[in-house]
Amino acid sequence: MTGTAPAPDTHVVVVGAGPVGLMLAGELRLGGAAVTVLEQRHAPTTESRASTLHARTMDILHQRGLLVELGDPPRGGPGHFGGMRLDLTGPSPHSGQWKVPQARTEALLARWATGLGARILRGHRLVGLTQTEDQVRADVVADGVHRTVRARYLIGCDGERSTVRELGGFAFPGHDASKELLRADVADVTVPDRRFERHPGGLAIASRGPGGVTRVMVHRYGTPATPRTTDPTFEEVTAAWQHVTGEDLTHGRPLWLNAFGNACRQADRYRNGRILLAGDAAHHQMPVGGQALNLGLHDAVNLGWKLAAHLGGTAGAHLLDSYHDERHPVGARILGNITAQALLLLGGPEVEPLRAVFGELLALPEARTHLAAMISGLDHAYPPGSGHHLLVGTPVRHHHLRTGTEDTDTFAPLETGRGLLVDLTGDPALAASAAPWADGRVRVLRATVPPGTAPPAFAAALVRPDGHLAWVDGTPSSLAAALQRWFGPPQRRVRPTGR
Fold this sequence. Notes:
Number of helices: 12
Organism: Streptomyces lunalinharesii
Cofactor: FAD
Strand content: 25-35%
Radius of gyration: 23 Å
Keywords: FAD, Flavoprotein, Monooxygenase, Oxidoreductase
Helix content: 25-40%
InterPro entries: FAD-bd, FAD/NAD-bd_sf, RIFMO-like
CATH superfamily of the largest domain: FAD/NAD(P)-binding domain
GO molecular function: monooxygenase activity
Distance between the termini: 16 Å
CATH architecture of the largest domain: 3-Layer(bba) Sandwich
C-alpha cells in the first residue's frame, strides 16, 4: 500500500548519464532536488559521437558558468540545411556552431553535476519500473545483483532505444528509417576533406579532426536502411565509400563505427504521472547538423528547474505540465525540419530540381535568417499567451549591464539557476512587487546600460531559470502575476518533499 511504502532513496532518478541526463542532474541540483543518475555503462564514453554545439546551447553553458572550463572549442565552420551551405550567424555571442566531442561534453557536465551533489551510479541497468501515487520504484541490476531505487520522480534520458519509454508505457508514433548514412572515425587514412559531396553513386562527407582522425560518412543512393541491432562493420563502410568515391579506406584503423537513418518518432507525451522523458528518449530523429544533442540539452534545461520547484513545494502540477506543453511542439518542429533536410540530403538525382530551388531561397536574407535561427535554437520560443509582450517566451539575449561601478550582463546572474528580474527603470514599484519572491527564488538586478553598448529591447524583464523571458515591460501587478505563475506563491522556499 502507498501509505506503508518505504521512503524514497532520492527525489529524482535520472536514467542515463549521457549529456542530457547529466545536464538534467545539474539543473535539478541547482534547484535543490536530490538526484541519483543510473547508467548501465561502467565507464564514461570515449567516443566523439555527437560533436556539434549550437549557439543556443553555448548561451546556456555561458549562463551556467561552464564556458570557462569548456575553454575555447574550435568553430565548426559554416552550417548547412540538407547539405546546402547555410550561414548560421545570429543574435548570440556564440553565433555559429562549435565542435566539442561528446566525451568532452559529458566529462564537463559530470564534473558540474557531481560538484553540485548529484550521485552517479555506473554499471546499473534498469530492468523494471513501477509507479504508485507518491513514488516510482526502479528495479536495477548491478554486478549481477538486483536492487531497488525509489524516488519521487524518474526521468528517462536513456536514448532512442529507451527502456524507460518502453517500461513507462509511452506511445512512440512515427516511422522507421528507410535510408541511412554509414559513418566511422578512422585513423591512418588520408583522404580529401569533403563537405556533402554529391557523386553519381551517392553522398560522401569527410573531415580530418584533431589527432589525425578522419570522420567519414557515406550514403549510396537508392540503398535502403538495414535493420540493425549492432553497429555496421568496417567492411560495409569501406565498400560503400569505394563505390561512391573510388577511394580505398581498407588500410585505415576504425576507432568508431555507427549508422543512422531518417527515422522520425516522437513520444505522444513527455510525462506519464511521475515518469518523464527527455532527449532522444522523447524524440528520435536523424542527427543531421547536430540538432539532436542540442534539442535534448534544451529539454533538460526546461525540465530541471520546473521539477525542482515542484519538489520544493513552490509550484503545482501546472508548472510540471508546462514541460510537455512547451517542449513537445518544439520537438515536433525540429523533427519536421530534419525530415525536410533528409529528403534534400539523401535523395538521389530526383531531388536536384528541389535543391536548385532551395538554393535560390537560401540566398534570400530573410530565408537564411529564419533557417539559421531554427537550426541554432535561437528561435525556440514558447507561446506567451494573449495580452503578453511579443518577447515573452523567447530566450533572453546577451547584453552588457552595469550595477553601480561593477560590470555584469544578462547571462551571468543565471549561473545559480534562479529567476532574474532585470530592472533598467529604477522604478521602486517593480522591486516592491518582486520582494516577496526575493527569498532565493528570484534575484532583482537593478542596472544601467554602459555607454556605447547596445541596450536590450526591454526596460524591465523577468527571466526564468532556463533563460526564457516570462514578463516584459508590464505593470507591477502583471509582474506579480507572472512571478506567481512561474515561481509559486509569495512565500519562503521550503525543503524539497515532492508530495
